[in-house]
Amino acid sequence: MNIHEYQAKEIFRRYNVPTPRGYVASSVEEAVQNAQKLGGTLWVVKAQIHAGGRGLGGGVKLARSLDEVKAHAQALLGMNLVTHQTTALGTCVQKIYIEEGVEIANEFYLGMVLDRSQELPVMMASCEGGMEIETIAQSAPEKIIKVSIDPFIGFQSYHGRELAFGLNLPQEETQNFIHCAKALYEAYMHNDASMIEINPLVKTKNGTFIALDAKMSFDDNALFRHPEIVAMRDTSEENPIEREASEYGLSYVKLNGSVGCMVNGAGLAMGTMDIIDYAGGEPANFLDVGGGANANTVAKGFEIILKDPNVKSIFVNIFGGIVRCDRIANGILEATKMVKVDVPVIVRLDGTNAKEAVEILKNANIKNIISATDLSDGAQKAVAAAKGALV
Fold first, then answer.
1. Per the annotation, does 55 bind a ligand?
2. Catalytic pick among 109, 185, 188, 252
3. Is pLDDT larger for residue 28 or for residue 353?
4. Angle at 30 between CA 43 and CA 74, to 5 degrees
5. Residue 323 known to bind ligand
6. N or C: which end of the chain has fewer CB within 10 A?
7. Is 282 annotated among the ligand-binding residues?
8. Is 158 a catalytic residue?
9. CATH code of the domain made up of 1-20+103-238
């Protein structure tokens, strides 16, 4: 689950991560009132959407008068902001964040993510603040300093010193940086975050560090422990199809291809997408129907997949372990009665009662349901069907 910048900064403040003062606004009048409340002569007006690259997309504006605050608020609210992390249509800006200006001496990057290869959280820092971490990793990977942190011992001063030395910080500023990094680690761990990012983390002229931006995402499986974070969910920022799928217990992520995928198990789903790519196609989605798939979940899966107009074929790849393959086959037949399936459906079933399942599908004699002998055969047929070739 993702949250907005202003919400992430609320969490930061609980852990004493330094942030500028700011207030969220949903109208032009509220934006001007917030600027007046902050005082001063410099404000930053920021679009609040669940996407990075807002500055490059024109979603972050400096204002040196209340009239400029008003003009920027009028321009941003209701606009479709396009960044490298949105679709070509962009995302509608419904909220803006009015923040006090900060005198910047230097910009850095500071973030945390789980390194699955090490099975440890990793804190990353770079002197290239303001740039996307992916860009830095490609163009200048030596400028990213990484420190793995064992949760059993937690963040220690030597972790912070290693990062500070890598950033070439003066000795007198190291302690301030360590306090900031430790606070960030605690915010990450205590809230079951999957990713936390400050880009940029700025150093002011007096040597203090301030989180000028904030980005957080959370492990959905741990949200039951954090009702206060669940309350921050903004469903208007989520893909409506993905949201609908989650309500039915389906794990769905829309992609850009033409081969729809319906699979049971996340690992098998990832492997299915890989083999579709290997066969020369492109998956249209990730869809895990879970281990207890039945006719209703399969029907809903078809309905969700077919809401994507780019889907030209569907590859059903089910391993019958907890659920027998013959049940899945009958579920597929029932699902086609419940949902109009007007694209070729390639079915590969393996595991318990797989032979019986193949006979069930064969005897049904439904023209657009095609059995596959194995995973490779299924992928090749699905890709060919998506391209309009005979299968």
1. yes
2. 109
3. 28
4. 70
5. yes
6. C
7. no
8. no
9. 3.30.470.20
